[in-house]
Amino acid sequence: MTSGPREIYHQRAVLDLGVWEAGALLFKVYGLLAPGMAVDEEMTDTARQIMDEEVLPSVQDMGESNGLGFVIIHAGEAGLSISAHWWVQGSVLCQHIYRRNYGDDKPLDTSKRPVIACVWELELINAEQEAWRETMMSHAPDPTAYLDSRAPGRVA
């Protein structure tokens, strides 16, 4: 028996929100929806602000970017998670995560709560690493094929 909160698994809808440009980077953007939830304008505005003000400077400071990545805007049951992922050094995935419970003014401190991802986000992350491996880790890397590949509409 485990202690702490438990959750029953149910599939969640996945939305294709297009490709966003952040500086010289291109990001596939997904919406991930808990039952009855939607990605609204405030959520996408928050995601774009995080991309411009936090992610892009981190990518530039770090260097070695492959110029491609993906973003997950997760309208969960308890709160909003926005995770930006970008590829560096040809095979390394980096992440910046923002989490805020609904009704809270400030996001959670991710340095004190080092969340990687929930089970639904991990499914998308796995689909993206497979797409990266298939389209970019070959003798003829194909950024267009990577950007065109999409995770399924429902997370199993």
Task: Describe the fold and architecture.
The protein is built from 3 helices and 6 strands; from the N terminus they run ββαβββααβ. It has 156 residues and is α+β, with helices and mostly antiparallel strands. The model has no long low-confidence stretch (mean pLDDT 90). It has one domain (12-155). The chain is globular. Strands 5-4-3-2-1-6 form a 6-stranded mixed beta sheet. It has helices at residues 41-62, 119-136, 143-148; strands spanning 12-22, 25-33, 65-75, 79-88, 92-101, 154-155. A hairpin with a 2-residue loop joins β1 and β2.
Query: How far apart, in Å, are the first and last alpha carbons?
Result: 25 Å
Question: How would a crystallographer describe the biggest sheet?
Answer: 6 strands, mixed
Total number of helices: 3
Helical coverage, percent range: 25-40%
Unreliable sequence segments = none
Portion in strands: 25-35%
* Widest sheet, order of strands: 5-4-3-2-1-6
Shape: globular
What is the string of helix and strand elements?
A: EEHEEEHHE
Number of domains: 1
- How large, in whole angstroms, is the Cα Rg? 16 Å
Total number of beta strands? 6
Structural class: alpha+beta
The assembly state of the depicted protein chains is: single chain
